[in-house]
Amino acid sequence: MTQTLEAAADEQADRTGPPNPAPRVRRWARLEFDNWALLLLPLLGFLTLVFVIPLLLLLSKSFTDPAVGLANYSDILTNPLYLKVLRNTFVTAITVTLVTVVIAFPFAYLMTLATPFWRGVMMIAVLIPFWTSLLVRSFALVLLLRDTGVINTVLDSVGVIDEPIPMLRHLSGVMFGMVQITLPFAVLPLYATMRTIDRRLLLAAESLGARPSVAFWKVFVPLTIPGVFAGLILVFIQALGYYITPALLGGPQNTMIGQLIVEQVSTVLKFGFAAALAVVLLGSTLILLAIASRFVDMKKYLMGSK
Hints:
Layout: H1 2-16, H2 22-37, H3 40-64, H4 71-78, H5 80-113, H6 116-131, H7 134-145, H8 150-157, H9 171-194, H10 200-207, H11 212-223, H12 225-240, H13 244-249, H14 257-268, H15 271-295, H16 298-303
Helix pairs in contact: 3-15, 4-15, 5-6, 5-9, 5-12, 6-9, 9-12, 10-11, 14-15
């Protein structure tokens, strides 16, 4: 009887073939992924502690301090002064972003063409701002842009100007300082994208009759869009929340929302109103990103997915 059962089992195995190891492999792969995913738990816990919980407290305070309701948001949306500050913030951030990317694009392109020595020199020039304190850089810009600063002194000495050009306590000074600080955040993603582009595509376009300028604009530039979009996002989000540079280089007419939040917290002590300003800034940023995602595949450009 036993021999009969074994023979039947062997016959069944011969008909069905060896067991498929794929399900077991998939189970082990899923188990290994789950184990690796456990490494994310400390990071998630840290983000929850320092970001999610404070953000929820901030949101709660904006509706409950000094009284429960929408009074803080009503003040922001009905007071012309606060609306002007919001407009100044977004206009300045958009302008700084566009100027930064326009300057960063040719710089990153030259980095891809330069020899290794000069590429290293250019990279160090880009990274130096990361190694210098933001406060130190802003005070250096004060010395550079004031009426008796380096720029006005040089222009006056060569006879270009008769009187100092107002740059400090002016929008031009704020723009100059913010572009100088945000430039590395546009150069690095642009360079990372450009260095991966196969230059033989340009040669192929030229071999088909396209002029070098046409090949550059119709072949090379479209391939740099992921780097351009990454630079736009990085610079714009940073520019929205700047405080030190506008406070040192700008005047009262150039007040940005970061300065207004600090003033509400440190001088006026209206914590609920400051929280509402922060929520408005965060919500506006998310809305703009959502609008941009309707026209651009942000996941593709920021994460490199196909």
